[in-house]
Amino acid sequence: MDLETYSDIDLGKCGVYRYAQSLNFEILLFGYSVDGGEVQVVDLACGEKIPQNIIEALTNDKVTKWSFNCSFERICLSVWLQGNYPAYFHSYSINEDTVGDYLDPSAWKCSMIWAAYMGLPLSLAGTGAVLGLDEQKLKEGKDLIRYFCVPCKATKANGGRTRNLPGHDIDKWNMFKFYNKRDVEVEMSIQARLKNYPVPDFVWDEYHLDQKINDRGIALDRNLVTHAIAFDAKSKAELTEKMQELTALDNPNSVVQMKQWLADHGMAMDSLGKKEVTQAVKTAPKELADVLLLRQQLAKSSVKKYQAMQNAVCTDGRARGMFLFYGANRSGRWAGRLIQLQNLPQNHMPDLEQARSLVQCGDYDAMELLYDDIPDTLSQLIRTAFVPRDGMKFIVADFSAIEARVLSFLAGEKWKSKAFEEGEDIYCSTASKMFGVPVEKHGVNGHLRQKGKIAELACIAEGELVLTNQGLVPIENVTKKQLLWDGENWVQHDGVIYKGEREVIEYDGLRATADHFVWVEGTSQPVQFGIAATCGAHLLQTGNGSHKKADSWDESGRDYCVSRTCSVRKEKELASNTRTARLYDIRNAGQHHRFTVSGKLVHNCGYGGSVGALKAMGALYMGLAEKELQPLVDSWRAANPNIVRFWWNVDRCVKDTVQRHVPTETNGIRFVYQSGMLFIQLPSGRHLSYVKPRMGKNRFGGEAVTYEGVGGTKKWERIESYGPKFVENIVQAISRDILAYAMRTLSHYFICGHVHDELIMECSMDVSLDCICEQMGRTPPWISGLLLRADGYECSFYKKD
Questions:
Q1: Which of 88, 160, 295, 600 is the most buried (most CB within 10 A)?
Q2: b/e string for 417-453 if b means 16 or more Cβ within 10 A?
Q3: pLDDT greater than 50 at residue 579
Q4: How far apart are CA 107 and CA 543, in angstroms?
Q5: pTM higher than the cut 0.85
Q6: pLDDT in tens, 144-164
């Protein structure tokens, strides 16, 4: 089926739950087919009625309903049936739950999820195009939807009306009916094309649980949200007034006016972005620095999260529809929608509850008195707007190092799995294994811990801007088609790698892990970011790529950072700037393994634990000579032989399967080629799908596997891959399956949100945290032997513990 609807609520901003609650919501057209029969279109806007047998089928949980993005049809029909056929409508909700009055999702299946499972685009038009269907979605649809489905602007030409009805343009209306019919036909064609590759029943069960979590929603403290928006408006007005006093500008929010003012006062700036302003403040005269700091506060955009909450919240005070099942179709992970819980700002205020209470009661004067930066305070309070319902509490639990545990288990790296089992410091364990001696943090052979640490995570926070030949790009969106500035030249690279979530520090305009290596002024070798920060060193500026060599490059070799005495005050400042973030790095950025991020020169990941990787992680700075690097590589590989072997076993299996069209298997993972698709079968029984794989050459002239998918540009394109990258997909996918298993185990605790590997549950006050963590940490039967651990905390409002 497919619906065309009208509402005065913005669907994109508010979501279908709020959209369908509008008093002006109505269904215009209802297109459907029964058991593959001819498509029928019911013109409800012009008075036609849906046949009685179809009404009965819609409310019969034994009849399967299909649609593309079927949550839209299910929620819209739930509301419509209650208003038009209340005797037939029945909800699956129970009194103890808050899922709302919606049709039971267990009777619904989604063609979009089927497409995503097959590695296809998440749009009807995109899926139809990739599959090469004879029936394609009509391109005129967007204009027709804009004409009939949303309010129109009142003009003299249209008689001052605010809505277009069928009678206002009967030709367009007839075309709209044909468009509705065609969408159903395209959906049916997609199902026919995919019928030999069904989605497993357990994945549909996961989808139905996902829909239940979306139906349940999560409560918002609307009082806090309302006051936060008001506080932000008042703060912005005061900041604007101060800016006008300092600059005499009519509109200090204007980028053009502010750039001109700064230029007139001797500071020409190409951009007023966050990173550029942060850097400029450090060297600007006080009067200009004050203006730039005010500019930073005015530009704070976190209040948009509060506005998103206000947009999405339903009449009962709960926000719904925030999670997209199979949103990442290479791993099957969830994606965020609307308020986007996946990228909420961190909170690191020691007096979080006090600040929250001031906003909740609307005491702006006290807030202004106690907190210097109101926009930043409001940003840190965003998480706290999510609350449990009265008489209940939140239990927030997540897995400990799940991806590292899964990788070690799959590869059979038993010493690493044992280190997790015994709660050891993984860096000490790595160094001990590499060098064959005991290594203790702050103890025996403690100096070797850092050498073990360079083999672990060292990465850049999500959202940091990388300088490419196509402009500044967030690190997670960098593509291999873009060249990177390495301080001297534009260089190629080997792509972005996601490296999990971990603590980062913020210093000198850069957010990264403390162990990532950067250059500072006066050094010829990179140093650790954390050391540079505590020493107060200036990170090296690399220019904008317009010159052959960056002007600030200093070849003197003087070790600027080490020659300074670390400041206790700096260390305290650094601790206050510590937070958790999603992390990324870039492989093989040119021969020097470096690139520019946030205007600073940083090292990158090397490939597969090679000499380049050690250089990238600062081995030379640690006192190792160039000739010592290969032995250290050999030590790491000797310490982790099974992980290395796993990378290249997967690489070999994928290549054999794609080249010879034969099934292969390694480490419990099976690879199959069928009908122009590569399938990777996971221990859970789920498959990862890669469209139209084939052999090609990578940029080094070596053999590589490529496939079609949504790449870093968010467009459908051919993607190059190799063993370690396929392993990353596999590990993330299995971690996702473990989370899904835990969600089913804990579903009776009213899960109302999840973020990465974390679950947010609404529980009665007598529920034990230990009990929740024990259940979450149970190993699924399909990966017996993997040791899991879940940790958590209780709270009366959501926060980062």
A1: 600
A2: bebbeeebbbbbbbbbbbbeeebeeeeeeeebbbbbb
A3: yes
A4: 58
A5: no
A6: 999 999 999 999 999 999 999
